Batch of 2 targets.
Target 1
Amino acid sequence: MNLEALKSTAVAMVGNGKGILAADESTPTIGKRFDTINTESTAESRRRYREMLFTAEGANKYIGGVILFDETLRQSTSDGVPFPKYLEGLGIAPGIKVDSGAKSLAAFEGETVTEGLDGLRERLIEYYSLGARFAKWRAVINVNDSLPSEFCIRANSHALARYSALCQEQNIVPIVEPEVLMDGDHSISRCEEVTSDALESVFRELTKHNVNLEGIILKPNMIISGTKAQNRATPSEVAEATIRCLKHYVPESVPGIAFLSGGQTSEEATEHLNLMNKMGDLPWELSFSYGRALQASPLKTWSGDEENYNAGQAAFMKRAKLNSLAHSGEYTNNMED
């Protein structure tokens, strides 16, 4: 393990106002996104859409890393340059989603555990040779009055730690993503309780597995009310609760925290990130690793029409720039206009 290389990559991904574009949608998932714009999902349409995002002029001012799907890692620009090589040339770290999805946790109804550890070492060796310098593994934690169970949290934490150790063995920075879902009617206090348990468990397992925390990126949810909650918390309450939780459970040696958007609107995700960074005096870079919150606008603008290609790039650049400003606490709502 080359710790200096890992640290350098991690800092470059989320430092200097930059964040991470999550473009790792599986083929079925991006198919559903394309359905919303009446566009057929083919290998070429998926390639062209990702190319629109990656080649937007000036993207490297705001984006420090891009998470790719296996298919995308092996695709190229229209000029024949492999996507990982193209991104690396811009100073953007190429990354890869390596888990095989959340599956039902046997004997624990309503809960899941993420699979994909079998053969992971060999896949990481191949992914590194293809240009990947970081990876992503997402654990999914459902919330209601009785869920999650302690075992579900422990099982997912153990898998995240094993994955992280295997990544660092191959000089790949692991993004550690324990996502407490927004789905449901739970309160912000319930979200904070579950997220606290999850983070405490994850860092306990990372330590047990000898994962060097200076060479990871944490990708957590924000502390936020469930989407069906009757009285949803205000943006200020979200920011305060999230920072309180992170300061209590995330070691200062972690170089960066890159939030997932998790079902928030693009504007909500940006505003929450901005409010947290305005609180100041944080030991880690507080950044973004957004999928839909960066892509919803450019996807709709593009709508599968080549005539809208440049407009789609402009829509992507707007969201990337606004989130970069939020990374520095310099975003204001009127910038949306």
Target 2
Amino acid sequence: MNVFRSLALGLTALLGVSQAAVAQEKFELTFSTYLPPSYEYVWKPVENFVKTVEEKSGGRVKIKVFHSGQLFGGYEELQALSRGNIDITNMTGTYPSGTVPALGVFILPFLFEDVGHLQRALKAGLLDLGVAQELRDKHDVVVLGVSAFDPYVFYSRRAPITGPKDFKGKIWATTGAADARAIQLLGGSPTSMASSDLYLSFDRGVIDGTPRPLLTGIGRSLYEVVKHVSLVNFALDTSILAINRKTWDRLPKDLQTIITEAAAKRDEEQFDRVKAYITEAIAKYEERGVKVQRLDAAAVAELRQATKPAVDEWVQTVPDGQKYLDVIKQTKGQ
């Protein structure tokens, strides 16, 4: 009996040591984003996410952050995350939309009324209609959270954008297939371009305009190379915080919970910062001599009608595409 008791006690002690070792296992994760710290309403929430995870985990998780495309550019982040070259990223939704067409919903023209509308649609399960599952099953990517950029507006180098006629014969830098198609329908010539290339392209006359958030213009100093900004909710892109699935599966459940809760706080903080930023950004453009054009309802209606085929075509190419539009419609004006 004493022998068996001794063996049992030894086994219990061994298991206890093993469990303690697992509990104290440390993880060093690589976080990569193409965005620079000057994109404050995206960068600050990311900083706070990292700080929260490291503190709440008691140092068991250490996250090393690389910004400004030090490791990968915006168009490369999904593939890098999928391969496991990085552990976490903060993808701009439209960049990987060529690989995951459903992500193009955020850059379809004139679907969202404002940032609050996008927030309601996401809470109503917009990404749960297939995007999140496709990212997990086909790309080994787990979505931790989703927040917003401020609305896409029109930047133009020479003349203001007031209606469809102002797009014709001009070269436009776009981010994904959906916004490129909309520009094409308006008579412009789209060319895919990362935000880091916009300044030189405007300065050298390579492009005439681009649909981008106000943040892009401030963060990339576009006010130095464009003369006009036309305010209109052309599209509302997303900031998708995501982790490699294999990395995620290696983490103990308690650390997964800490990361999930920190991601939710990041989402809310970024939404709050975006809403406050819009008014501030417009004032900054005006201070720097950029002429700000506010499109009226009639002009927006004309633009929406001209670009409607882009929405119809997207619905036909994406499984359950109409369900996405139904959620967006149901969450309008609440």
